[in-house]
Amino acid sequence: MNAPHPAAARTTEARQSLYRDMSPHHLTPLWEVLHALVPPQPASPCVPALWRYQQIRPFLQRAGEVITAEEAVRRVLILENPALRGQSAVTQSLYAGLQLILPGEVAPSHRHTQSALRFIVEGTGAYTSVDGERTTMHPGDFIITPSWTWHDHGNEVDEAVVWLDGLDIPMIRFFDAGFAENGSAKSQAVTRAEGASFARYGYNMAPVRGDAPFGATSPLFSYPYERSREALHQLERSAPLDAWDGYKLRYLNPLTGGTPMPTIQPFLQRLPAGFDGQPGRQTDGAVYSVVEGAGTAYIDGPAGPLRFDVEARDHFVVPSWQTLRLQSATGCVLFSFSDRPVQQALGIHKEERLA
Ligand code: 1HN
User: What is the CATH number of the domain that holds 336?
Assistant: First the structure.
């Protein structure tokens, strides 16, 4: 190798000496990091990951043996992105976990700035209370805990109930904007009949007077699977199949037609038997919960192509801007959620349909 030109060597030395001298003053040269700061395209540190229910269910069982829901406050196994261990994050902006509540247990009342969704994975009959109203959980129900609303969960039936929690924890942490407090009672007082929110907002109608009770969040806090599944079923009979998504619907806030939660958009989709989807990518990384049936997710990113063969109750994450292709030989239903509403509010959401 040739020795560096003396002039070049002097320049390098002068630069290094500048960096060294100014570093104690908390100064960094942009030109050394510019490329990484504004990459030509998204370069998520996240990796695709799969949690097979059959493999992880025993850990939930063991969690149920070593700690009560009350002691834990929330007995949850966090689905951590393998590339973000220790950060309680499934993507850079989202948190996901599987929560277990056993017969007779209560997860005590509290509230926080962070918004939560629940997607019921196993068991029927536990309840969640939100703002004085209980709702009973059934597999496939999508339930919202709006920001800063009191919420507690309980199980008064004789089977274990497990659900997927999706929260905007990393986003709120990023903004340093989170508050939380504990309720004075273990379970909040019930002040409205079960179904009161559905009666007002669940039939494509809304009260003539009154404001949105939860601000930017949907006033409908339970979206029963029976209804959403029926919507997909009717869609399948009447609408053309989308070559990328199959039949895919977004849950909506009935008062606005927009996202039910300001920070998270949930979706439900059906891949009919024999579906062989086209590849696509989006800037919103997404968490998937397999509701019914089985299928295959092909995810292609910087780490190379991956294939996840999934079945009901499995969960997987697709990072931002990695290519996803879905297949199902026998048909399946998928629930998913992402930070799309935030990206759309910022005008940065991007989708690319490849073929
Ligand atoms: C929370 O309040 C729940 O209410 C679940 O069930 C998971 C993760 C972090 C912070 C709060 C719940 C949570 C959480």
Answer: 2.60.120.10
